[in-house]
């Protein structure tokens, strides 16, 4: 890919000066009026064509550089279509709430720059408090391998694409969504109930979902217990199995165990009614009888992402073997993890072909899920989807993580998968920033 230097021209008018060979390449003629785009800023300019000493140099008037807030230190790719010259890509990663904390962690964020040679242009990180909606600009830290610490503080326009990795205030979220549109991806977060309610409306996906209700009372509890001989009580939000209770009915009392707690608690009807009233922001959910391995619950984390192609793909799949006799499969509590195909062979006794077929079946279900969420909720490019397989080898969708742990592949010592997990959303951001989506 050809890269171009942007330099200051000597015209006081809003002009762009191109080498004659560059102009010919893009089909641009002298004195033509075109638009120049840089991130979310755009301005009109008159083209001047000359023979330049470096054909890969583009000269911009100072007024254009100032209006667009162009970083002239970086080399860029150029795209010209419909009389619009796009200088880019300009990609932002929203990684912190406050600049002070972001600055402290800059070294950690270098992992997001692994694919920089495929990206080119501007790749910068920023925090929520660095966005200035009034003046239409962001102060952030541009990756610059020529500096001593790899980062350079700059003021930029809102970029062609933003990848979100943090929670946002409602005000910021609404303003950023309005500003960026579909080029702000992984933007909307939703809890477990919203997720279940969304997918249950789809006939094809409904069969992969455990029955769930947000009506937390004794009547709902008893209905689930009669139907399934057990029920999970879990928080609408949260992760890593925290706050999950498993409840059964024994004669005239209830028996309950909390995840990560070996103590079984017995409760009368009165005690259970009081307990449920204190957990009204929870869900009741059908227990999936997961196929266990040596008394360990097992589920599969599917890392589904988009890359530079713009299409969903499975970056990796990791099986998580929970603590022995635990009520969930969260492996970080005395469990372990394995690559998915090897885990399927170990868990079910599959041969290589059967394990691969089940692996592909899981991916197909996850892709259907991703398509449906995008259609009804908004733009996404990075999901961590938890899948369970029951004793009849039926696939179940447990939950979806919109801001999942990118370090998961390191649990199975797969650095190649880890690098892809970090890089793919950034490559997708380039696809967005340099396409008509921006």
UniProtKB/TrEMBL annotation:
InterPro entries per record: YheC/D
Superkingdom of this protein's organism: Bacteria
Name this protein carries in UniProt: YheC/YheD family protein
The organism of origin for this protein: Lederbergia citri
């Amino acid at each position: 890919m050809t890269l171009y230097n942007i330099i200051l021209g000597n015209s006081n008018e809003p002009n762009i000066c191109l080498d004659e060979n560059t102009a010919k390449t893009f089909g641009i003629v002298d004195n033509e009026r075109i638009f120049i785009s840089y991130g979310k800023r755009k301005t009109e300019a008159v083209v001047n064509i000359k023979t330049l000493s470096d054909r890969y140099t583009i000269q911009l008037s100072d007024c254009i550089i100032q209006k667009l807030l162009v970083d002239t230190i970086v080399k860029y790719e150029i795209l010209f279509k419909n009389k619009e010259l796009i200088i880019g890509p300009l990609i932002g990663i929203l990684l912190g709430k406050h600049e002070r904390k972001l600055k402290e962690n800059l070294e950690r964020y270098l992992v997001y720059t692994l694919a920089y040679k495929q990206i080119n242009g501007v790749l910068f990180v920023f925090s929520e408090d660095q966005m200035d909606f009034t003046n239409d600009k962001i102060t952030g830290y541009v990756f610059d391998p020529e500096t001593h610490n790899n980062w350079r503080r700059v003021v930029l326009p809102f970029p062609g694409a933003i990848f979100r990795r943090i929670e946002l205030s409602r005000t910021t979220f609404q303003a950023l969504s309005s500003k960026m549109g579909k080029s702000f991806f992984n933007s909307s977060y939703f809890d477990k109930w919203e997720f279940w309610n969304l997918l249950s409306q789809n006939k094809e996906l409904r069969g992969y979902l455990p029955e769930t209700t947000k009506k937390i009372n004794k009547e709902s509890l008893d209905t689930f217990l009669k139907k399934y001989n057990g029920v999970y009580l879990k928080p609408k939000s949260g992760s890593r199995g925290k706050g999950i209770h498993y409840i059964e009915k024994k004669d005239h009392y209830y028996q309950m165990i909390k995840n990560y707690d070996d103590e079984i608690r017995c409760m009368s009807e009165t005690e259970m009614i009081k307990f449920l009233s204190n957990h009204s922001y929870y869900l009741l959910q059908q227990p999936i009888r997961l196929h266990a391995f040596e008394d360990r619950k097992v589920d599969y984390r599917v890392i589904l992402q988009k890359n530079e192609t713009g299409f969903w793909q499975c970056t990796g799949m990791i099986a998580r073997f929970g603590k022995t006799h635990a009520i969930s499969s969260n492996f970080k509590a005395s469990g372990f993890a394995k690559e998915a195909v090897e885990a399927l062979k170990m868990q079910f006794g599959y041969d290589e072909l059967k394990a691969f077929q089940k692996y592909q079946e899981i991916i197909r279900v996850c892709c259907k899920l991703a398509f449906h969420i995008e259609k009804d909720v908004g733009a996404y490019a990075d999901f961590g989807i938890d899948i369970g397989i029951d004793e009849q080898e039926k696939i179940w969708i447990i939950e979806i993580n919109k801001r999942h742990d990118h370090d998961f592949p390191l649990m199975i010592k797969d650095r190649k998968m880890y690098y892809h997990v970090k890089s793919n959303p950034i490559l997708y951001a380039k696809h967005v920033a340099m396409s008509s989506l921006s």
